[in-house]
Amino acid sequence: MKEAVRLSDYAEHIQEALSKGILLNTNGDKFNAMVIAWGNLGLTWGMPTFVAYVRESRYSKAQIDKTGEFTLSIPLGEPDAVITKVCGSQSGQDIDKVKEAGLTLEPSEVNRTPGVREYPLTLECKVLYAQEQALSGLPDVLREKFYPQGDAHTTYIAQILKAYIIR
Ligand SMILES: Cc1cc2nc3c(=O)[nH]c(=O)nc-3n(C[C@H](O)[C@H](O)[C@H](O)COP(=O)(O)O)c2cc1C
Prior knowledge:
Elements: E1 2-4, H1 7-20, E2 22-27, E3 31-36, E4 39-44, E5 47-55, H2 59-67, E6 69-74, H3 81-89, H4 97-101, E7 105-106, E8 115-116, E9 121-132, H5 140-146, E10 153-166
Antiparallel strand pairs: 1-10, 2-3, 2-6, 4-5, 5-10, 6-9, 7-8, 9-10
The structure holds flavin mononucleotide.
The site of flavin mononucleotide has 20 residues, from strand 3, strand 5, helix 2 and helix 3.
C-alpha cells in the first residue's frame, strides 16, 4: 500500500536523509540504484521539483538519458550500510544491485522505474531539463577539488509527480 504524503511535511527529513545518502533509481536497460547526496527539493516553473547532479561516468546517467525519469527512495530511519556500500561504490554496468544490495522493488504509480521497499519514502520524478555543467564556470578551488579528471556533473531538474510512503 502507498500512503500519499505532502512534500512540505517531509522537506526537512529529505534534506537530512540526503546528507547521508538516498537512492536514485533508474530503469533503462534494467533497474539500477545509485546513492546520491547532492540534490535540491524546491519549486521550478511553478512545480514541485527535485534537482539531481549525476556525473558523466555513472551508469545511471545513461539510464536517465534513455528514459527521462528517475524514482527517489529515501530511508525513514538510518541508511542501510550494505545498500550504501553496494549502490554508492559499484556500477550497474558491472553488477546487479537488486541482488547484491538485497533490494525489494515496488512498482511505481506513474513511472516505469520502481521504488525500493527498504527506503519507503518515494518520489516519482520526470526530467524536465538536463544540462552538463560547464566546468569553466566554476571557481578554480571547486574545479580542482571536485573535477580533477574533468568528470562533470549533469544537472537534472525533474518534476515530482508523486510522493508517498510504501507501507
Ligand atoms: C554518500 C554518497 C553520495 C553520493 N552522491 C553522488 C551524487 O550526488 N552524484 C553522483 O554522481 N554520484 C554520487 N555518489 C557516487 C555514486 O553513488 C557511485 O559512483 C555509484 O557507484 C554509481 O553507480 P552507477 O554507476 O550504477 O550509476 C555518491 C556516493 C556516496 C557513497
